[in-house]
Amino acid sequence: MASREVVGPRDRDPSVAVLAAAICGPQGEVLLRIHKPVERFVGGRMMVEVMALMEGLDAALGLGIRSVTIITGYRPLYNHMLGIWRPSGRNLADMINQVLSVRRKFDQCAISLVEPSQVSYVVKLATDSLTVLITKARAANANMAKRENCAICMEDADITKILVVEGCAHRFCFSCMKEHVKVKLLNGMLPGCPQDGCTTKLTVEGSKIFLSPRLLGIMVQRVREGQIPPNQKVYCPYPKCSALMSLREVMHPMQESSSKYTAADAATLRKCVKCRGSFCINCKVPWHDRMTCYDYKRRYPHARPEDAKLQNLARQRLWRQCVKCKHMIELAEGCYHMICVCGFEFCYTCGKEWKEKKATCSCPLWDEHNIIREVDEDDDDYVYDVYDEDDNDFYY
């Protein structure tokens, strides 16, 4: 059965079709039902009728049946099978020749033309299948055609590319959500819904649909960091590990039955829960055996070569280090009131703490060079270079 009902743009989906056939026993009992869509249908009803007959004959042979009677209510099929009519097209002629070839494999294969009412069972079978096919095609085309405006970029996006934020139901396109999350992650923050005033936090599971695997990995790290209070965070000092732990998680070697360490080591000696490397919880460096923390810091004021380079660069560029979590901060623009990722508020100029949103120093609040700046095309190019599609410029 073929339908010329249009289910999409006329130049793309001219028609849909299904074929149906039933194999019945001597008493009319149904032994096998066959119904399936015809892929990429471009022919007329006659072509579908021949295809259905081929399916039925092949199925009968598969069941071991050697004597059949073909019953049809479609006269053109009947006339073609008896040779009364000749097929007009090459494709139809080839299909009919295939059917005749299969027909010769039976010991007996007759054909009978009946009233359409006598094949109502397979007609209903085809009609039901066709209805389902049309419904699915309509739904697919409706979804493809439906678009929604993104509140951030103000552009229309396919409905399948719109994210509904879990927990608040605000809606934004994938592209804007990805850029929003990138910026938040780059600044060490766990991203939330971009809707103004909304406090809903994004989840890793809900963000999988629009984030790259690399950004998802960074987001997992941010979630982990957010679950540990700033004064409880400990990072493994071994470069090949750098695992994040809380103070309660770090392993205490003195608890191990075969410990080789002395009681004096108990105060500062800890082990990483991931790589099991020993380190000093006070100095945040690999374990300095037979040396106190005081002696170690005198001998190695910069535990790692990169620490000295960082401190030198910080002095040159006037960066400020958070006194609470030691996070290094650079003022790109804005006032001198800083809020670190750990939540500590301080003055960028002198480092003194802000309490209850008020400065405890007399330093200027801002410099107009950091507030007002010219924006040109080079700035836009820089932004796109930093946040490229490969996500290669994100470090944590």
Automatic annotation (TrEMBL):
Keyword list, A-Z: Metal-binding, Repeat, Transferase, Ubl conjugation pathway, Zinc, Zinc-finger
Organism: Panicum virgatum (Blackwell switchgrass)
Residue ranges of domain RING-type in the record: 146-367, 150-196
Gene3D superfamilies: 1.20.120.1750, Ribonuclease H-like superfamily/Ribonuclease H, Zinc/RING finger domain, C3HC4 (zinc finger)
Name of the protein in question: RBR-type E3 ubiquitin transferase
Function: Might act as an E3 ubiquitin-protein ligase, or as part of E3 complex, which accepts ubiquitin from specific E2 ubiquitin-conjugating enzymes and then transfers it to substrates.
PANTHER family associated with the record: RBR FAMILY RING FINGER AND IBR DOMAIN-CONTAINING
GO aspect biological process, one term: protein ubiquitination
Superkingdom of the source species: Eukaryota
Keyword Repeat recorded: yes
The family this protein is said to belong to: Belongs to the RBR family. Ariadne subfamily.
